Amino acid sequence: MAPFVLGEITIDWPLAFHSFWPILQGGLIYTIPLAIISFIFGLALAMLMALLRLSKVNVAQGAARVYISIIRGTPLLVQLAIIFYGLPDLGIEVSPFVGAVVALSMNVGGYAAETIRASILSVPQGQWEAGYTLGMNDAQVMCRIILPQAARVSVPPLSNTFISLVKDTSLASTITVTELFRRAQEITATSYDFLLLYSEAALVYWIFCFILSMIQGHIENRLDRYVARH
């Protein structure tokens, strides 16, 4: 198939067709798993930081504040570089994928912690009092009454965090993780067709995020119906 010429732009269709699958494969094998694993660990870390921020122990509150401040005040790219390139100076070496998971998880933990904390605080104080009248302690009220209600409030912002995380995985290419964008870079290194291949990478990211947005909307609708019934 001959290249298609559009003004000053020439589209190499054979290259476009042959490169699309490797780029998509990089997304399916590395980008999505990397985002899911990092989000799970990051969510657990965010829950811990949120509970520490709500703790009555000043030291715990202070530690959580410092952690969140550092994560939110430094670029993710720098965090990746410190973990992958800096930790070996201390004798700690990690693989590119593990390094990316650690950095992304810590980043999610710092940002999602405030989302979870705000969701917990949005539950009326009367819900705590209702739990106490039933003979529950603080932990039981939190797990059985507060967190289920806070979960509904936190779903939209946390879903947006996950979608942003999918795009942020592109930074893992800087530490040689062969995810979606890294695959596009590798093909570009031999073809030099930057516009075509990076546009394909952008298209695949958009497809992933569009599908995730649809799933997010479906989950929110299901939760709305559940809340309406109860």
Automatic annotation (TrEMBL):
Its main location: membrane. InterPro entries: AA_ABC_transptr_permease_3TM, ArtM/GltK/GlnP/TcyL/YhdX-like, MetI-like, MetI-like_sf. The chain crosses the membrane at residues 28-54, 66-87, 195-215. It holds the Pfam family BPD_transp_1. SUPFAM superfamilies: MetI-like. It is found in: Cell membrane. Residues 28-216 form the ABC transmembrane type-1 domain. It is a multi-pass membrane protein. Keywords: Amino-acid transport, Cell membrane, Membrane, Transmembrane, Transmembrane helix, Transport. PROSITE patterns: ABC_TM1. Belongs to the binding-protein-dependent transport system permease family. This is Amino acid ABC transporter permease. The lineage of its organism: Bacteria, Bacillati, Bacillota, Bacilli, Bacillales.
